[in-house]
């Protein structure tokens, strides 16, 4: 039994248009703050929360649009949350699974060879008097709009057979380490079989009570109390008070239960309340996993120490964990995720994790991520990561790159660059223009190059705005016109229909090694301008390193003696042995080849840029900034003005 889809309408940040969320055995929710990650976990808890208080729909759960809020009269509001479960274990002909019997009569098949499914829908209505009416139904039949027809009420027992354990960002185990019916530990102990121990416990507690009552201090208190009581109370009943320790039932003893750890620093046993926040968080997770494991063994008939009717173990358990990185160091975080992954590997268990931790996402396959973001109407949207086909050589590259730069999931806007130079230089240039990357939630990621089209598709699918800075690489192999042709083709493939751009026009562009020189071509200038309007900029004529050393020769320590025509080996090192040579460069540009070669081919690119940028203030950087970079920053500033925070 697995939760395969959740649909939400008008619940908190989810608007009136039903929003589907598909789930894996282990699913990760991520996105910027306020995007709705916690809302998804709370929606699951409203359906099947272990804690009854989490099942109650609140007035604040109803979505109210800004327009309705401005009008001041919301009227009657409604919301619904629908969960679809599938039962792949039915494909196991020899298996016996506790998940099947209770749901069998409500299963539906979409096709003869499909997997049976069950749909639950929670509907709530808030009337004008502030009263909330809730209903939980099976969705058996639907109309043409996929709306339920003649739904069936879900019995309480059926609803309780599915449990969602919502582990909030602050995980305090105190509420679940007590002998109450609503606590994890208390509910389990109440269902334990104590028949063999009752007589033994009764005898031991009677001895303890007698020993305590024989204490002189206790006897003195009893005598004083009896004397004063007789003066005030004259009835024949309740005439003789005494200090008693006669409550020797097991239930009374279990009310004092706790969890202790040995060894301790100051005592032989340390109470769990002495643990750090991170350790208490680990204890909370351990407790939930332990109780669920006991329930699974009881259902399978492997453990008879509990009364199954009193324990009422869930046939399906989902752990909804919020920000596991809270209070946990990275190596503990890895252990928690591994424990949850093992837990979700069973047919009757699943896990959903909402996170902000880049260190966690480096361990996560992108296919298991659901990306949440607010749209222009400030309603939550949910997207799935779109990866290249596994047969495509780009699949491994994109997968590893996304895991290496998970910060892009939390950004308002992504700038795709070619490599390390962009990652160092661009943030400093943005700060010079008054756009600090942290203040604006911009992520600059060196994910460009030959697979940039896959990142365009990925970010477009997630609806994350992006701008790209590529190298024009004039004179290098298949560069210049080749770079423009590649970018134009990928834009056409991504957007299908693009004004003023056809595949025929792209194929008619000059060859990269033809006589038409892109730097002096009016057609090339028009295409570069058009590409910039699409958010694709080029460091011209070569790359960002060359543009910066030309713009700020003094900061990069370029002496006049270095500005001479480069020899043939240097030119081949800069442009490559298969390149066209330096003919498309002006004499002034060619004079920088030797300095470029020394700093960026023989030396360290990061070191050269860091040393040069340290010598330049904001005014100097703004005044001498390469024109394509200045235009890129202007476009980013314009895009940010239209994006929600």
TrEMBL record:
Residues 410-473 form the OLD protein-like TOPRIM domain. The keyword RNA-binding does not apply. Residues 261-361 form the ATPase AAA-type core domain. GO terms for biological process: double-strand break repair. Keywords: Plasmid. The keyword Phosphoprotein does not apply. CDD domains: TOPRIM_OLD (cd01026). Signal peptide: none annotated. Residues 5-70 form the Rad50/SbcC-type AAA domain. GO terms for molecular function: ATP binding; ATP hydrolysis activity. This is Transcriptional regulator, Fis family. It comes from Polaromonas naphthalenivorans (strain CJ2).
